[in-house]
């Protein structure tokens, strides 16, 4: 949020107008409320439709900034950065992209026409869930100076330990991102035919609504580590999370350990009660997928009795999957 605020609040003034996603990071609504209090006109629109372009056109040439989040969190919708950036620049507006889920290896917003790329370093960049960090990149020295001035003014500056932890993690960034992205696609494919699952989303699936756009702007087959899907209801989702053995029930994503959560527990996101956001870690893909499928069976009441080998019915004390 320090990085997000540094961009928005260094660029927007009373009387300006901006377009922000209606399905973006959970704390954006609070920041939008703050911007409105400062006299900034904000229009919101969902990521995966042409609604963002329509909102930009409705605000007209007075628009100062277009904010994109692609893929969106937690819905995993994707928008065409270059197309929207061209439309915004034609109206004199700057463009910022939240690139947290894609990572700089999977997507390069500045090369696609954005003026700012913003991300949470807490997620995949550092990958170990042990640092709070955000970052902003831009090409224009003037814009960079404005962001730095805001950062200095409000004190949103990481300490030496946080900077060291981030630097430590960069050495394994490509290894982690590639492994997690490949396993995420494999997991999504394994979930496609599960009858209890609806709304399965991952940009790497050829059947995903966002796949065409994602394949055109996300690099090297890296479509992110997050898979989302919906189970029938809240209770079913919680049984699934409880049955997982290799996966932590936690709210972050991008770490080396797989995590999953029932996103609706926080409120604020327009998702069903049974919506699951699953972040794929660096575990063995076969082991992870086996654990997820077993947990789905357990949540549906179709698994073998506890302590019984599913194949033979013999008593077993080892962990399955």
TrEMBL record:
Region (Disordered): 300-321
Coiled-coil intervals: none
Keyword DNA-binding among UniProt keywords: no
Modification N6-(pyridoxal phosphate)lysine, positions: 123
GO CC annotations, alphabetized: cytoplasm
UniProt xrefs under Pfam families: Cys_Met_Meta_PP (PF01053)
Cofactor(s) demanded: pyridoxal 5'-phosphate
Biased composition (Low complexity): 311-321
Keywords for the protein's UniProt record, in alphabetical order: Pyridoxal phosphate
GO MF term set: cystathionine gamma-lyase activity; pyridoxal phosphate binding
GO biological process, one term: transsulfuration
Organism superkingdom: Bacteria
Transport as UniProt keyword: no
Family to which the UniProt record says this protein belongs: Belongs to the trans-sulfuration enzymes family.
Protein name, as recorded: Cystathionine gamma-lyase
Organism name: Streptomyces violaceusniger
